[in-house]
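Write out the 3D structure for:
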Amino acid sequence: MGLSTSEVELLACPECRVGLDASGVRFVDEVLEGGAFRCAECGRRYEVRRGIPFFAPWADDLSRAEDRPTAFATWARAHAHYRDWHEHRWNAEGARRARPLFDAFWAFAGAVEGCGVDIGGGRSLNREWNPKAQIWSVDPESSWVLDPPPKFMASMYRCWDQPFPFVQAVGERLPLKARAFDFAIIQGALDHVADPEAVIAEARRVLRPGGTLWLMVTTADLEREVPRLAMMRRHFARARRNPRQLLIQGPVRFFSEDEEAIEHGHVSAKALTRANLDTWLSTYRDKGMKEVSIDGMRQLFVRASRPE
């Protein structure tokens, strides 16, 4: 899963967000193998481990989470919950049941092309539905690509054994240059990150003007998901005549915090409650959102574009 010489050019320091000095890394047949990158701005050093750029030096040690800075402890607790789910519940049956969800998501989105990033994507099964696109995966778990793959996954997903760009990092601080990608995917990941708003902001940062974010969240836990949808509004918004009236360019419209909840006959995310959820969703089903129910789990699909 090593990066090519041209792909390395898209990397950046997750702290300074400037390009990296690659003079200390090794390539074999133009594929990244080892060594270390260095940030030209702050001097931080980032190792390449078994061909994978390692930008989260604390991500593989959750045992002493409470002794680390608060931000790390928060992230570690969220990620430990995900690890437990993945280790104990992700099996052949779970993989089989996931396919209809992917099918529904990409029927909504349509196949994408160009270069994109799957944030929290693991082995990025989204590649299965987008063979013409180059999809990077940024994930804190290198086990997705280093551990022996389950046999059932390779048999269910043709893309499983195909090489793709993989970087070990967290979504809150993507080690990628700004305005470098045509699309970003956040699919089933916001429930196990420490700072969902930072992840949304980072997705916006790495998108080219006009680039698209595809987001999937569950609507089962309304109190958790509505604030995340509000983040979409804030970070993919632009001012028009009224600087307080913020719009997402594209088919999805949200409202600024200043607008009345029922302005334009719609319900804003600010006023969203369980009682009016169905009304709110139906308003937007024809404007770029789609809700589906897979095995009893309600999912919301969202498309938003970065302004030109």
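The chain has two domains: 1-54, 62-305.
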